[in-house]
Design a protein that fits this description.
By secondary structure, this protein is of the alpha+beta class. The chain has 3 domains: 60 residues; 32 residues; 287 residues, 7 Propeller (Methylamine Dehydrogenase, Chain H), CATH 2.130.10.
Length: 422
């Protein structure tokens, strides 16, 4: 029975994910990206496989259980077949049956009350979320990526379905001149804040001068990108995660990648540089997170504790901790000195769709499918603080450089800025 429940839970989770992907497909219409179609096909195939396994398990029930499948002649069929006085007897039985059912259902709420789950108690380590929301910015479309400029003064917000990147001044929420770039799914700033790299649905990366908002170069990746990241101390080095499972390393003034990292067996979903600029972490649909040295083609280490896609990876500011968020409803923290799992946050109600870690490594935040954001004090209570306000999937989370502000971008078309109590 445990396996049956597990299969039912997996089918329900994959069905929810499939629904979200098909909502995105409906938005794109005939312009739906190829990798999104492939992902839909993969999940449909997985659901079908699980349903077959479930059917086989349920078909193997004991003989006593199979009695439930013995056909019983319904009352209305006996009524139709009866003749003479017998027909009136069947009619009486039929009417009495309906009356009995009506009586039972009239008392149903009293004999089988709805189960209401109590709200989780507030974490003793964190304040209540009621007054933490500072600003809401509406883009009226699915938020695909968000980011602070390195100096923390501006917030950039992109939508895969709009023709611009919105720029907002953090201090007062005032809108600045936008970038006229359509269909951005991922973006990253160079460490000096002078260059912005953007990825769209096509196999290319555009590079922009932030000052004049004009593109100056394009990198052709040959496959659809999922994520981009500049090396922390070198504005010339850019890493690009691709849906074919590889990571390309580029010098931005060149026309070919100088190294291709291979090891993942499915699409790369997220990448992040360690502060030393020599180590890269990646998450993948293949359920692993991998660590790479930029001087080597093969992974340095593979983290295998997750059981579903790893949606997000993030380093602490000192590079001693790596956080990974997964569709298996967990966030995990790893000690980089020996690649040991040191903490798991699993009090979640659905897949982790986005995740962020403060630069000091003391606070971790997870965005969920239901629109909530849960945050924990590292090493503190396992009960999360819950931030609510979004009504769509939380697609992206980012902390400001000082760790005082958390920004969340959602499928509901809004970006919210939250104050982080320390």
């Amino acid at each position: 029975m445990s396996r049956v429940r597990d299969l039912q839970s997996l089918i329900a989770k994959h069905t929810r994910s499939l629904q979200k992907l098909k909502e995105q497909q409906a938005l794109f219409g005939i312009h739906t990206p190829h990798h999104l179609l492939i992902e839909i096909e993969d999940i449909e195939a997985e659901i079908e496989k699980l349903q077959v396994e479930l059917a086989n398990l349920e078909g193997g029930k004991s003989a006593s259980d199979s009695l439930d499948n013995v056909p019983v002649q319904p009352v209305w069929r006996g009524l139709y077949a009866a003749k003479g006085k017998t027909k009136f007897i069947w009619l009486a039985v039929f009417l009495l049956t309906i009356a009995a059912i009506s009586v039972v259902y009239s008392f149903y709420p009293a004999i089988n009350p709805a189960q209401i789950s109590p709200s989780p108690p507030a974490s003793p380590d964190l304040p209540p979320p009621g007054d933490l929301l500072m600003t809401t910015i509406s883009l009226a479309d699915v938020i695909s990526d968000i980011g602070f400029t390195p100096d923390g003064q501006f917030l950039f917000a992109a939508s895969a379905n709009q023709n611009q990147i919105r720029v907002v001044r953090v201090a007062d929420g005032k809108a600045e001149e936008s970038f006229p770039e359509p269909g951005v799914i991922a973006m990253a700033f160079s460490p000096d804040g002078q260059i912005l790299a953007t990825a769209d649905w096509g196999p290319e990366i555009k590079l922009w001068h932030v000052a004049d908002r004009k593109p100056f170069h394009q990198l052709n990746t040959t496959n659809s990108p999922s994520s981009v990241a500049f090396a922390p101390a070198d504005a010339q080095v850019l890493a690009i995660g691709l849906w074919d499972g590889t990571i390309q390393l580029w010098r931005i003034d060149q026309t070919e990648p100088y190294r291709i990292l291979r090891g993942h067996t499915d699409g790369v979903t997220s990448i992040a540089f360690a502060p030393d600029g020599q180590t890269l972490a990646s998450g993948s649909k293949d359920t692993t997170a991998r660590l790479w040295r930029l001087t080597e083609d093969q992974p340095l280490y593979t983290l295998r504790e997750h059981h579903d896609r790893v949606a997000s990876v993030a380093f602490s500011g000192d590079g001693q901790i790596l956080a990974t968020g997964s569709w298996d409803n967990t966030v995990k923290l790893w000690r980089m000195s020996d690649h040991t799992l040191i903490q798991t946050f699993d009090s979640l109600t659905g897949p982790v769709t986005s995740m962020a870690l403060t630069p000091d490594g003391q606070v971790v935040a997870a965005g969920l499918e239901d629109g909530s954001v849960k945050i924990w004090r590292v090493g503190g209570s396992a009960i999360p603080q819950i931030l609510t306000g979004h009504v769509g999937v939380v697609e992206r989370l980012k902390f400001s450089a000082d760790g005082q502000t958390l920004v969340s971008g959602s499928g509901d078309g809004t970006v919210k800025l939250w104050r982080v109590e320390r």
